[in-house]
Amino acid sequence: MSREHDQDTRQLLIESAKKEFLKKGYNKASLRSICADAGLTTGALYFFFENKADLFAAIVDPPLNGLKQILFQHFKEDVEEASKLDSFDGVDMDHSEISDRIVGHIYDNYDSFMLLLTASENTVYENVVDEFVTLVENSIPPMMASLKGYTYDKYMSHWMAHISIDAYIHVIEHERDVKKAKKRLSSILNYLVMGWVQLVMVKK
Description:
Strand content: under 5%
Structural class: mainly alpha
Order of helices and strands: HHHHHHHHEHHE
Distance between the termini: 66 Å
CATH architecture of the largest domain: Orthogonal Bundle
Radius of gyration: 20 Å
CATH class of the largest domain: Mainly Alpha
Number of helices: 10
Number of domains: 2
């Protein structure tokens, strides 16, 4: 079997698995059904994947890690920019560019993210939303440490992190058109950034 054929077979299994997981969720998804849809034997599946969990991970891990990298890079840039500021007065609060990057990545991998949001019960990903809230919340202390003349409200920071993630989830789940999603979330994120400044970041 050629490497190219291997990749084609593996991708065929992944596409069939996406459909099965989206339709039935992780718990009720059947490896036999996935193989039947792909026109392959269960032996072929086990050649590429150890088990159902490994197959699910193959679908969601690459896009999930890609999103984390986008956020980590954004947080790093925020820290660098904050270290140059004495005040938020006059600072451009438009975050449309990063919002578009996030939305574009999510919609390029829409099925994988919908699996994470709706079909990951009893997997290692079932708390992924809470993990992203924590990731956003944990990005604040490094930025605040480099920001001159400001402190922050930890309670409000946690609350705003929840609101930010919830806003993205709501639009992703209810808007299938990526252009409309970008427009809505760009406006929402810019609104939330102003909220962060007013509610979370307090002058010393």
